[in-house]
Structures are given as structure tokens and as C-alpha cells.
From TrEMBL, chain A:
The keyword Hydrolase does not apply. This is Urea ABC transporter ATP-binding protein UrtD. PANTHER family: CONSERVED COMPONENT OF ABC TRANSPORTER FOR NATURAL AMINO ACIDS-RELATED, HIGH-AFFINITY BRANCHED-CHAIN AMINO ACID TRANSPORT ATP-BINDING PROTEIN. It holds the Pfam family BCA_ABC_TP_C. One of its GO terms (molecular function) is ATP binding. The gene is urtD.
TrEMBL record, chain B:
The keyword Transmembrane applies. It is found in: Cell membrane. The chain crosses the membrane at residues 12-40, 52-71, 77-101, 153-178, 212-233, 239-263, 275-296. Belongs to the binding-protein-dependent transport system permease family. LivHM subfamily. Pfam families: BPD_transp_2. The gene is urtB. Keywords: Amino-acid transport, Cell membrane, Membrane, Transmembrane, Transmembrane helix, Transport. This is Urea ABC transporter permease subunit UrtB. It comes from Paracoccus onchidii.
UniProtKB/TrEMBL annotation, chain C:
The keyword Cell membrane applies. This is Urea ABC transporter permease subunit UrtC. It is a multi-pass membrane protein. Keywords: Cell membrane, Membrane, Transmembrane, Transmembrane helix. It comes from Paracoccus onchidii. The gene is urtC. The lineage of its organism: Bacteria, Pseudomonadati, Pseudomonadota, Alphaproteobacteria, Rhodobacterales. CDD domains: TM_PBP1_LivM_like.
């Protein structure tokens, strides 16, 4: 189905690991500027869906179309250049490099071997890195090694690394996990600011946080889509209540 | 390359080479079993594995000499005593090495590789200092000499059969130990999730030490078996280390059956090629094919697909 | 501070001291024989520098660097051997004009793949291109399939084993276990007299500094930071839009080329090339040169190669037994006690003292700079 209104079209997506179907015939559609939150119990296949979209895991069947390009056949770095950014569940930053260098590596220029060898830090790069660092509350830490940052600061740094790429689709896997209440609040504020001009897929367990940012919510269960709609809609859905409260 | 041989001759050649290959297979399996435990289960690269095997071989040599000197009447049985002692000697050394060295390096696999290489150099020099640089051989007991004539053209040496039976027996024992015993469950639990295994009350340090020790012990037994078909020198072990690692990796590191299947295919290929090409070219081609396949299928032949 | 100069001050001082040692101290202090020996050690430093890039910076441990060293060395040796095998010089052979070992192995014509090595220009190109192409094939096959770490180490070690068996087995084409020996002149210039060896020592030293500077430039570029980032969090780099494999392939090829230059210089200075320098054991010893120097330190690699090789010559001459124990202990010690090698020791113990020593007189009036 080619629908120009959707930036991302996922259809009949399946993947199995040794016979175990982690994602099973999943379809969903994301509009530009939409913030979609995927929720579901542990093992529902949420992270696997993100893995499939960003090319970390290869689909067994089905299609993922992003702005008309079929992602299932593309390499991870090509998917990134197509405009998809991904943040991991556990913060993943380069501990041995400074915050500045961490952000610089994500700066969308000089990504080929030759490009990296000849890359120069000019005014544009510098200005953009400082701007992003301010956004993610790390303006004063630019020359510090990432290893010394707190858990929450590493999460922000990784979000910043995503932000500097300016992706049209941003995927965040549990962005507030392991954060203090204060950090959580700051992060919600940060996310609300950066999700404005792009499509976002978020995996999150914190329902208050979900209600705060979600345009629509998709509930997954055992690799399948269980329910989809507004927060109020899915909360009222008896199937969802059954999965979360039943058993 | 087949011209000049009649069909029955060709059949006999292939059978004989196949059998020679089976002996090579036994050596591979015996060496690879210990490595499959240590590398496959624990993920530790032990470059001194060959030296643990040679330790077993030297123990066998000493035991055979002792029997010849003090109990010539029981000489026919010395091998079984030697096997047990070889297991104990290599196993004990393995546990000491694990305690002194390996346990500090579990998170640095490449460093383990270098450190165990250093260990292998030290062991080689120790062997050389103790036993001399010349290769030593054991006297094979009377009952293991000779061969069974199968047809006019085909003869099968008894020591070869014995080594094969031994290899299969030890494989079966290791299989039972790893997959059918409580200890094997513990080992697998520790290697799959160290923290969790510790939390449910498994002594992970002790399990590591035992696993490493048993892997080395099995190498010692391999060394004992090795004396039945070849002589032993300080660097004999190093000659096999590359082949053995390839066998284990080719089989899919964590799979015991895979290790045996890959030992079989590699040894057969090499042995049959050997008849038609020079020995070195047979080895080059076999290794190249294995490396080539590993480049195409790095997870080995029998690995499972998992979510990373 | 975003603008960085190419060298920091301490790096410039380090380079200057190294240059002083190699260009002045050794030639002044050592006799011709020893100087040639140190030139040989320095040819191993090329490999160690390549390993710092691959292993220290990129986390790629190759146990097959001897193969690349050997490829460079054999390319050079083939050229020199052909030059030494003129029909006049080989008149007593049943086929004059081909290398002696071919004649001994009943080969009566120069194999096709030997022929281009009549040209010095081709040889020079081959010294770079052959190992790089080989490294590219290995790297492409392995890194594209995400093989890394221990598996990569084992496969490269297997390749070293295969290369040795192949060279030894194909006597007629490679000189077999003896290698290619009895090399005499380079474009008519006799490389055997002491004077020529001194010249070669300096050529080697200049090339080595060239390599060091190239390696430093790579490490200082964003490429170098991407390598470190890959070592820390490979997936993050991949999902920041980098084709990780191509970075690894590139650095592996660079390491291979550096090793090959070292190999070619080894052949020139030592006068032969043999499979004993290609195999598993020499390849892993090359790793220890790098580890002793400090796997993250480019200059450390040079010191490591010098020190280990010097120790090897000294000890294996007088106490051959002790040497293997020593080398074994060195492997273990450098992993367990000094993972950052000499460079690490320098940073931990000597640098703070130097700083203290420099700060004390700093309070005293300083001469104008």
C-alpha cells in the first residue's frame, strides 16, 4: 500500500529466531510529525520492532517502507542516511571520547572512510555541536570524557547524538529508564521540544510519560498488534486490560 | 589423477585413506573436545591447549617407562593407568592456570589469547628442559600391535581402532557430563548468565575452575591417546593448535555434535586429498576451504540463529 | 578549544627524542654489524605501528601480520633474486637465467607471475598493492559479516599457517623452507657491504618516520576517533550512519601495507626472505612488540620492537633456554601487569616526575624563549 500520508509503512512484518516468532504479522503506519508510543508487556517484541526498522535484525517476511524506500533490504548506515535515527535501551555512548567528540561523530558529514580522514572542524560544526549540547543540558561538559557522565546524562548525550543527525524518524527505546524524577521531568521537556518537527516512535513503560507525549499508542502482545489508538482508547480496550491485568 | 588405478585398487585406497583419516579424526576430536568445553562453553581462548595435551603424552611416556621397569608383567595395562594420570596432571595444571591467570582475564578474550600463548612457550621450554628436545615414543603394548586384515588389499591397524574407540568413548562421556549431569547444567548456566547463576546459588568461580580443569584434563587424555600413533616432542602440541581451533570454530563453537562432525569432515578431506596431492598441498587446500567457508558462514556449520 | 595543531608539545618532544636515538645515537654508538641488526629490529617496528592502529585503536587483533610482512619481503626478494640470477651468474645451471632454487627443482622457465618482478617500478608498486589487496579480500569477507575479536584472530592465524605451508611446499616457486637467499644488488648497487647497509639503515629509518607521521595523522583525524568509538560501542557508530566494515577494512589494509614496507626493508637489510618470518610464531611475536611498547602508543611500538628484538638477540645468543621462558613470561606480564606496555609505565611513573622536575625550576627566573 503506497500512501503518501504515511512516512513509515510497516506491513505483515515477521521475524523468527529458531522457530520462535518474536514479531508476527505486524502492521502499522506512522504519519509525519506523529509521536507513536509502543507499549506492551516484557517480551512483546517492542525492541525487536525497532531492531527491524533500523536494520539491526533482518525480517523473515514483510516490508518496511520509509518515504518510499524499502528498508528491509538496506544496510544500517544507509537506513540512517535515509533519515532514521535510533537510541538504544541502555545508553550507548563512546566512553573514551569527550562529549564534544561524541556529538561530532554523529554530525552528518564525513561518514565515509575518505570523508572521515579529511573531515575538518569548521565553524558550522562547532556551532551546531554547541547548540545541541545546550539543548541536552550538557553545554558545560563538552570537554569531559563521556565516561564520567551520570546515567541520565549519558541518556541525554545519546539523544543529542540522534538530534544532531536531524532524522525524520526518531526511535527511542525507553528514554527515561533509570532516571531520577527530576531527570525524568527534564527529559520529558526535552523530548517534547525535539519531537515537534519529525515522526517519533517511543517504547516506554511509564504511563504518565506516555500520556504526556503520545499522539497514538500501539499495544503489542506476543509479537502481534493488540490494540491501537489514542491513549484513552487503548486504556479502555478490554483486550489490553486482559493482557496487563489478567493471567 | 585417478588414472593408473583399477577400480578395486581405487576403492581400497579410498578405504585405507579413509581409515587413516579416521585416526586423524580421533586426534582432532580428542583435542577439540577439550577446546570445545573451554572455548565453546567459556569463550576462553587457550593457546596452550596443545601443551596440555603434550603434558598428557609425557605422563603416558613416564608411566610406560615405570611399568617397563617395575611391573613388566602388567605392562599391557599401563595405558589405562596412564590415561587417568594424564587426565589428573593436565586437569590439575589447568586449574592452577585458571586460578593464577585466566580468571583475571574473562572480560578480555584477546588478552587471554596472548597470555596463554606465553604460557605455551613456557611449557614448551619446560618440556624441553625436562625431557630433551628429541621426540620420545612409548612402547605400544603387545595387544595393540598388528592389524586386522579385512580383504586382501585392506588392513586396519589395531592401535588405530583403539584410538578411535577411545575418542568416541570420551566424546560420549563429555556429552553426558555437559548435557545430562547437574554439573553440566551449572556450567551452561554460568556461561549463559554469570550474574544470574551466581544469584541462584551456583559457585561461579568454582564452576569456572572445574570447567577449565576438565577441558585441560580431556586434552591430557588426548595426549595419552596421541602416544599410540605418534611420537612426542616439546613442540608437537603447537603443530595442532590451528587445526584444532578451526575444527571447533567450523563446528559452531558451542555445539559438541558440530565439533565432532567438523572434525570428521576436515580429517577425511585432508586424508583423502593427501593421497593424490602432496601432504602439504592437501593440508593447504583443506585449511583454505575451511577458512573460506568460515568467511562465508562465520557462525560455523551448526550454530543457532539468535537475537543479539 | 576546537582548533588543534597537528602535534601536541609532548608528542613533538617524543618524536624528536626518538629521531635523536634512531638517527644520531645508534649510528654513532653502534658498529656496522650492530647497526644493521638494529635496522632489522626497526623493520619490525613498521608492523608494530600498523598493529597499534588496528589493534590498539580499532580493536582488531590480527595474528597474521607476518603474512603481510612476508608479502612485502618476498616481493622485494623476488626482484633482487631475479637481478642476481643473470644468465652469466647462473651459467652452471641447466637453465641459466632463472633463480637457482628453481633450477634445483627442475623448473626450466621463469613462471609467469615471477616475470613482472624484473621491473623495479612494478616491485615497488607490488609491495604496497599485493598486501593491501590481500588484506582487502580478508577484511571484506570477514568484516562485512561482522566477524571480529577472537574469531578474526584465529582466522588470521590460520592464514599465517596456510601461507607458511604453501611457501614451504612450493619449493620450486618460492625457494621452500630456505626462502629466497643470496641476494646481491639493487639496480646494480651492491647491498652487501657495510657502507650499503648503513645507507639502508637510514632509508629504513626515514621510511619508519614517514609511517609514524601517517599513522599519527590517521589517529588525529576523525577517522581515528571513529575507530576508538567503534571499539567502545560499535552499534552506536553503525546507527550514527557509518559503514563500520569499510572503516575496519581500511585500517586493516593500512596495517598490512605498513607491515609490507617493513618486510621489504627487512629483505634489503638482511639479504634474504624465508617462511620462518611469515608463520604463526613470528606473527604472534610481532603482536608482542606492539604490546610491550603499549598497544595505544605509536612511538611505544617502535621502542617495543627495538627492546624485544634486542632482548631476543642478547638472550637467545647466550641463554637460549632462558629466552623462551623470558618471552613467555613477557606475554603473560604484559597482559596481566602492564596492559599499556612501556607507554603506560611512562605515563604512570615517569611523566609525573618529569612534570614535578619541570615545575620546580619553573619558579626560578627563566631564560627568554
Amino acid at each position: 500500500m503506497e500512501n503518501p500520508n504515511f512516512i513509515l509503512t510497516v506491513e505483515d512484518l515477521s521475524v523468527s529466531f529458531d522457530g520462535f516468532k518474536a514479531v508476527d504479522g505486524l502492521s502499522f503506519y506512522i504519519e509525519p510529525n506523529e509521536c507513536r508510543v509502543i507499549i506492551g508487556p516484557n517480551g512483546a517484541g517492542k525492541t525487536t520492532v525497532l531492531d527491524l526498522i533500523c536494520g539491526r535484525t533482518r525480517a523473515t517476511a514483510g516490508s518496511i517502507e520509509f518515504k518510499g524506500a524499502e528498508l528491509t533490504r538496506m544496510r544500517e548506515d544507509q537506513i540512517v542516511h535515509a533519515g532514521v535515527g535510533r537510541k538504544f535501551q541502555t545508553p550507548s555512548v563512546y566512553e573514551d571520547l569527550t562529549v564534544f567528540e561524541n556529538l561530532e561523530i554523529s554530525y552528518p558529514r564525513g561518514h565515509t572512510v575518505f570523508g572521515a580522514l579529511t573531515f575538518r572542524r569548521d565553524g558550522d560544526v562547532d556551532a551546531r555541536i554547541r547548540e545541541v549540547a545546550e539543548t541536552i543540558f550538557l553545554g558545560d561538559f563538552l570537554q569531559e570524557r563521556a565516561a564520567i557522565l551520570s546515567h541520565g546524562q549519558k541518556q541525554w548525550l545519546e539523544i543529542g547524538m540522534l538530534l544532531i543527525q536531524d532524522p525524520q524518524l526518531m526511535m527511542l527505546d525507553e528514554p527515561v529508564a533509570g532516571m531520577s524524577v527530576a531527570e525524568r521531568k527534564k527529559t520529558a521537556e526535552l523530548l517534547n521540544r525535539i519531537i515537534r518537527d519529525r515522526a517519533v516512535i517511543v517504547i516506554e513503560h511509564d504511563m504518565g510519560f506516555v500520556a504526556d507525549i503520545a499522539t497514538r499508542v500501539t499495544v503489542m502482545h506476543q509479537g502481534k498488534r493488540l490494540s491501537e489508538g489514542s491513549m484513552a482508547h487503548v486504556q479502555a480496550d478490554p483486550k489490553v486490560v486482559e493482557v496487563y491485568l489478567g493471567h | 589423477m585417478f588414472s593408473g588405478y583399477s577400480l578395486p585398487e581405487l576403492g581400497a585406497i579410498i578405504t585405507m585413506q579413509g581409515f587413516a583419516g579416521l585416526i586423524l579424526f580421533s586426534v582432532f576430536v580428542l583435542m577439540a573436545l577439550g577446546l570445545a568445553i573451554i572455548f565453546g562453553q567459556m569463550g576462553v581462548i587457550n593457546m596452550a591447549h596443545g601443551e596440555f595435551m603434550i603434558l598428557g603424552a609425557y605422563v603416558t611416556y613416564l608411566v610406560s617407562n615405570a611399568f617397563a621397569a617395575y611391573m613388566p608383567a602388567l605392562f599391557g595395562a599401563y595405558f589405562f593407568v596412564a590415561m587417568v594420570l594424564a587426565f589428573c596432571a593436565s586437569g590439575l595444571l589447568g586449574m592452577i592456570v585458571e586460578w593464577a591467570m585466566i580468571r583475571h582475564l574473562y572480560k578480555r578474550p584477546l588478552d587471554t589469547l596472548l597470555a596463554t600463548w606465553g604460557l605455551s612457550l613456557i611449557l614448551q621450554q619446560t618440556f624441553r628442559s625436562l625431557f630433551g628436545a628429541r621426540e620420545v615414543g612409548v612402547t605400544i603394548p603387545q595387544w595393540m600391535m598388528g592389524s586386522l586384515p579385512v580383504t586382501d588389499l585392506i588392513e586396519i591397524p589395531i592401535n588405530g581402532i583403539f584410538v578411535m574407540v577411545l575418542a568416541l568413548g570420551i566424546s560420549a562421556a563429555v556429552y553426558v557430563m555437559m548435557y545430562r549431569s547437574a554439573w553440566g547444567r551449572q556450567v551452561r548456566a554460568v556461561t549463559q548468565n554469570r550474574v544470574m547463576a551466581g544469584a541462584v546459588g551456583i559457585d561461579t568461580e568454582r564452576t569456572d575452575r572445574m570447567t577449565f580443569g576438565i577441558g585441560c584434563g580431556v586434552a591430557g587424555v588426548a595426549g595419552a591417546a596421541f602416544t599410540m600413533i605418534g611420537s612426542t616432542g616439546p613442540t608437537s602440541g603447537q603443530a595442532y593448535i590451528v587445526d584444532t581451533f578451526l575444527v571447533v570454530v567450523f563446528g559452531g563453537a558451542a555445539s559438541l555434535l558440530g565439533t565432532i562432525a567438523s572434525a570428521f569432515s576436515i580429517s577425511q578431506a585432508q586424508s583423502i586429498l593427501e593421497f593424490f596431492l602432496s601432504g602439504s598441498m592437501a593440508k593447504v587446500i583443506t585449511l583454505l576451504v575451511v577458512v573460506g567457508i568460515l568467511m562465508l558462514r562465520p557462525q560455523g556449520l551448526f550454530a543457532m540463529k539468535l537475537r543479539k | 578549544m576546537t582548533k588543534t595543531s597537528f602535534l601536541t608539545r609532548s608528542e613533538a618532544v617524543g618524536l624528536a627524542i626518538l629521531a635523536l636515538i634512531i638517527f644520531v645515537a645508534f649510528p654513532v654508538m653502534l658498529d656496522d654489524f650492530r647497526l644493521n641488526l638494529f635496522g632489522k629490529y626497526l623493520s619490525y617496528a613498521f608492523v608494530a605501528i600498523g598493529l597499534v592502529l588496528c589493534w590498539g585503536a580499532g580493536g582488531i587483533l590480527s595474528l597474521g601480520q607476518g603474512v603481510f610482512f612476508g608479502l612485502g619481503g618476498y616481493c622485494m626478494a623476488m626482484f633482487l633474486k631475479l637481478e642476481a640470477s643473470t644468465p652469466e651468474a647462473t651459467a652452471i645451471q641447466s637453465t641459466p637465467g632463472i633463480p637457482d632454487f628453481m633450477d634445483w627443482n627442475q623448473i626450466s622457465a621463469l613462471p609467469i607471475w615471477w616475470q613482472p618482478f624484473n621491473s623495479f617500478a612494478f616491485t615497488l608498486i607490488a609491495i604496497f598493492v599485493v598486501p593491501a589487496a590481500f588484506a582487502f579480500v580478508i577484511g571484506y569477507a570477514m568484516f562485512r559479516r561482522r566477524v571480529s575479536g577472537v574469531y578474526f584472530a584465529i582466522i588470521t592465524q590460520a592464514i599465517a599457517a596456510i601461507a607458511t605451508i604453501l611457501i614451504v611446499g612450493q619449493q620450486g616457486y618460492t625457494g621452500g623452507v630456505n626462502g629466497i637467499t643470496d641476494l646481491r644488488t639493487l639496480m646494480g648497487w651492491d647491498i652487501r657491504p657495510d657502507g650499503a647497509k648503513t645507507v639502508l639503515y637510514f632509508v629504513n629509518a626515514i621510511l619508519l618516520f614517514g609511517c609514524l607521521v601517517v599513522a599519527m595523522a590517521i589517529r588525529k583525524s576523525k577517522f581515528g576517533r571513529v575507530l576508538v568509538a567503534m571499539r567502545d560501542a560499535e552499534d552506536r557508530v553503525r546507527f550514527s550512519g557509518y559503514d563500520v566494515a569499510s572503516f575496519k577494512i581500511f585500517i586493516f589494509c593500512v596495517g598490512a601495507m605498513m607491515a609490507a614496507v617493513g618486510g621489504a626493508m627487512f629483505t634489503l637489510q638482511v639479504g634474504f626472505m624465508s617462511p620462518t618470518i611469515v608463520g604463526i610464531v613470528p606473527s604472534i611475536e610481532m603482536v608482542i612488540f606492539c604490546a610491550v611498547g603499549g598497544r595505544h602508543s605509536l612511538m611505544g611500538a617502535v621502542y617495543g620492537a627495538l627492546l624485544v628484538n634486542w632482548a631476543k638477540t642478547t638472550f637467545s645468543e647466550s641463554f637460549p633456554e632462558l629466552w623462551l621462558f623470558g618471552l613467555g613470561a613477557l606475554f603473560i606480564a604484559v597482559v596481566m601487569a602492564f596492559p599499556n606496555g612501556l607507554a603506560g609505565l611512562f605515563d604512570d611513573y615517569i611523566k609525573p616526575r618529569l612534570r614535578g622536575w619541570r615545575q620546580t625550576p619553573a619558579t626560578a627566573p627563566q631564560p627568554a624563549e
